[in-house]
């Protein structure tokens, strides 16, 4: 039995669009991290450093660590968004309100990424993080309000 997605559902299609962009952004950060490791010769594992010049390259690099922290923060924020957003789509929200939630989260994560990678002045990164959490909490609140009637 094949799973068919209803791409005629405007809310779900919008969610898929922004979710896919976020995942592509995460892949880009992962690739950047790997490329920085190679360029800076800063490997996390001895077997990798041996392949690229010796154990002396089994070390940390500030820029590689910055990318790793960004990627970790993405996982902490984007994965919950994917779960909450999927549940939110099931509540049949207004398409324009849903799109606004998804777009705000996506743009906030994009600004957060730029702020992290280019070490922009504080509080740019923390503001982007906070703005991104607002639609997540809003969607989560709507989910909780909708399901409490079944308790």
From TrEMBL:
Keyword Transmembrane annotated: yes
Pfam families, A to Z: MAPEG
Cofactors demanded by this protein: glutathione
Keyword presence, Chaperone: no
Membrane topology field: Multi-pass membrane protein
Keyword vocabulary terms for this entry: Cytoplasm, Fatty acid biosynthesis, Fatty acid metabolism, Isomerase, Lipid biosynthesis, Lipid metabolism, Membrane, Oxidoreductase, Prostaglandin biosynthesis, Prostaglandin metabolism, Transferase, Transmembrane, Transmembrane helix
Endpoints of the signal sequence: none
EC number: 2.5.1.18, 5.3.99.3
Gene3D superfamilies with a match to the protein in the record: Membrane associated eicosanoid/glutathione metabolism-like domain
Cellular compartments annotated: Cytoplasm, Perinuclear region; Membrane
Pathway connected to this protein: Lipid metabolism; prostaglandin biosynthesis
Transmembrane parts of this sequence: 12-32, 77-94
Database matches in InterPro entries: MAPEG-like_dom_sf (IPR023352), Membr-assoc_MAPEG (IPR001129), MGST1-like (IPR040162)
Catalytic activity: 2-glyceryl-prostaglandin H2 = 2-glyceryl-prostaglandin E2; prostaglandin H2 = prostaglandin E2; prostaglandin G2 = (15S)-15-hydroperoxy-prostaglandin E2; (5S)-hydroperoxy-(6E,8Z,11Z,14Z)-eicosatetraenoate + 2 glutathione = (5S)-hydroxy-(6E,8Z,11Z,14Z)-eicosatetraenoate + glutathione disulfide + H2O
Job of this protein: Terminal enzyme of the cyclooxygenase (COX)-2-mediated prostaglandin E2 (PGE2) biosynthetic pathway. Catalyzes the glutathione-dependent oxidoreduction of prostaglandin endoperoxide H2 (PGH2) to prostaglandin E2 (PGE2) in response to inflammatory stimuli. Plays a key role in inflammation response, fever and pain. Also catalyzes the oxidoreduction of endocannabinoids into prostaglandin glycerol esters and PGG2 into 15-hydroperoxy-PGE2.
Family classification: Belongs to the MAPEG family.
Protein name as it appears in the record: Prostaglandin E synthase
Organism: Huso huso (Beluga)
């Amino acid at each position: 039995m094949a799973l068919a997605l209803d791409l005629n559902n405007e809310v779900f299609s919008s969610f898929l669009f922004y979710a896919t962009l976020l995942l592509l952004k995460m892949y880009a950060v992962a690739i950047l991290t790997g490329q920085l490791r190679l360029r800076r010769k800063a490997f996390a594992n001895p077997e990798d450093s041996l392949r690229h010049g010796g154990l002396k390259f089994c070390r940390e690099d500030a820029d590689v660590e910055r990318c790793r922290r960004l990627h970790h923060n993405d996982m902490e924020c984007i994965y919950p968004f994917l779960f909450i957003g999927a549940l939110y789509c099931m509540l049949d929200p207004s398409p324009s309100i849903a799109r606004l939630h998804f777009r705000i989260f996506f743009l906030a994560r994009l600004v957060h990424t730029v702020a992290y990678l280019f070490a922009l002045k504080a509080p740019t990164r923390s503001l982007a993080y906070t703005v991104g959490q607002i639609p997540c909490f809003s969607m989560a609140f709507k989910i909780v309000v909708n399901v409490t009637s079944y308790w």
